Amino acid sequence: MPRISKIEASVPVVKVRKHVAAYARVSMDTEELRHSLSAQVSYYSRLIQGNPEWEYAGVYADKFISGTGKEKREEFKRMIADCEAGRIHIILTKSISRFARNTVDLLETVRHLRDIGVEVRFERERISTLDKGGEFLLTLLASFAEEEVWSISANTKWGIHKRMRKGMPHLHFQIYGYRWEGDELAIVPEEADVVRRIYRDFLAGKARKQIVRELNADGIPAKTGGRWTPTSVHNILDNVTYTGCLLLQKRFVTDPISKHVVKNRGELPQYFVENSHPAIVSRAEFDAVREERQRIKELGAPAYHNFKIGVFACKVRCPACHLNYVHRVDKKGNGRDYWCCKRAAQGKGRDGLRCSVGGGVNTVSLMRACADVLGLEEFDEGVFHEKVDFISIPERNVAEFHFKDGRVMLKGCPNTGHKSCWTPEARARASETRKIIEAAKRREREGKCKNER
User: Fold this and answer.
1) Which of the residues 57, 232, 298, 431 has an alpha carbon 20 to 30 A from that of 449?
2) Where is pLDDT greater, at 231 or 107?
3) 325 three-class SS
């Protein structure tokens, strides 16, 4: 009997090509390194496209950025995002130091990529993150790369300190009122006039906020061309450079990995260079400003002569936030006058937390409570400042008076802000506002009805 053999048609297996990308980086903007970066990009482009088993996924290159961190490396972050999206299977890079000089960042990144199935190949060290023992070698060599950063940093600092000992700044810093002409600071006349005006106004008793308002009102641009702020005025009043002297190493970098900059409070030597450039203000003016700032620091807001701050400025405190209460007047509503914790006034502090006490203390109620604890028929500002050290607000509607003789007294201080301010005039304004709003809503409803018809 004849046999019949069935021949199955074989389907050729097409091997899926892996998507391969490369990463390149140079840290400084020099002709040599620009050529190096261009050579790396060309080399990897030809290498990947010349391999029939690979699909070209691009070359990611960060220009003139340090490898000690990954926050500013936009191309690096874009490459990682593409890996997470499944668009890259293999990453090629020249060496560990090009990929990262921070051991922690390096290991976290390659472990994350390995977990999602992405391989990283370091050509110089001949290491693949998917090989056995690859992570051990990677950790060891990455430590050497990080140690090299510390060594470079130490050599750089030695050179900076050598220049500072000679009275030479290690970089051309930007400062309002001056410009650099070669290695010398030269005065910018129109900006120097503004600096002298700030010193003159401050010594005349004007607060920083008042100086800022006047500068902006006069249309005088700040250093960057924008508006003035209390911080920019403070920096001018605090900078000894305007006296024709230089104070070098006012700040320093804590370590070359995080590059965190802190104020030098004696950790490192500072170098004071006298008569290094033309002065805008005299040393006597600068010292007078420093003494005035110290007086304001000790007395608080009442130290300002020409600034309306309110009778309870720096006298009412929040025990929960350890901040003073600030004065507020509701100009948009019924004009109520009250005090509240600085954190509560901001909604929440810089740390993202809200004031646990909350609420405000009406000025009229606070004056009435003060008069009661002082045994007076009506509030007397002179007696208050003479006998009361400060007032603490431990909870809503309660004021804790701390006297200068050591006594402490609790007093109820109900918040009658709206009731106290609800004068006939305020009622009339509120009624007129309601009429305007209701009329606008009525016109809007009538317009909608016409459109529907």
Assistant:
1) 431
2) 231
3) strand
Sheet containing 54-62: which strands, arranged edge to edge?
54-62, 18-25, 90-93, 119-122, 127-128
Q: What are phi and psi of 119, to 5 degrees?
A: -95, 140
Residues 274 and 329 in one domain: no
Tell me the pLDDT band of 211, cut-offs 50, 70 and 90.
very high
User: Are both 127 and 188 inside the same structural domain?
Assistant: no
Q: 254-263 in b/e burial notation, b at 16+ Cβ within 10 A?
A: eebbeeeeee
pLDDT digits (tens, 9 = 90+) for 248-300: 777 766 665 556 777 777 777 777 778 888 999 999 999 999 998 888 776 65
Residue with structure tokens 């499944």? 86
Q: Judging by beta carbons within 10 Å of its beta carbon (0-12, 13-18, 19+), is residue 237 exposed, middle or buried?
A: buried
| Domain assignment of residue 436, yes or no | no
The sign of the CA dihedral 330, 334, 338, 342 is negative
**Same domain, yes or no: 73 and 32:** yes
Instruction: Give the CB-side neighbour count of residue 372, counting CA atoms within 13 A.
Output: 14
User: Domain span at residue 411?
Assistant: 316-421
Count of structural domains, the chain: 3
What's the mean per-residue pLDDT of the chain? Answer: 80
Instruction: Let me know if residue 47 belongs to a domain.
Output: yes
Could you give the CA distance from residue 143 to residue 161 in angstroms, rounded to a whole number? 27
Is 112 inside a domain boundary?
yes
CATH code, domain with 220:
3.90.1750.20
One domain, residues 112 and 226: no
Cβ-Cβ contacts under 8 Å for 5 (sequence gap 6 or more): none
Same domain, 252 and 347: no
Helices (H), 7-124: 31-49, 74-84, 96-99, 103-115
- Whether residue 281 contacts residue 178, with contact meaning beta carbons closer than 8 Å, is answered with no
Taking a C-beta distance cutoff of 8 angstroms, is the pair 206, 198 a contact? no
Asked if residue 290 and residue 201 are part of one domain, the reply reads yes
Beta bridge partners of 426: none
Q: What is the pLDDT of residue 199?
A: 93
Q: State the pairing for strand pair 246-248/388-395.
A: unpaired
**409, part of any domain:** yes
Q: Answer whether 340's CB lies under 8 Å from 321's CB.
A: no
Strands (E) in 114-175, as ranges, are 119-122, 127-128
pLDDT at 90 over 80: yes
Measure the CA angle with vertex 81, ends 78 and 87; round to 5°: 105
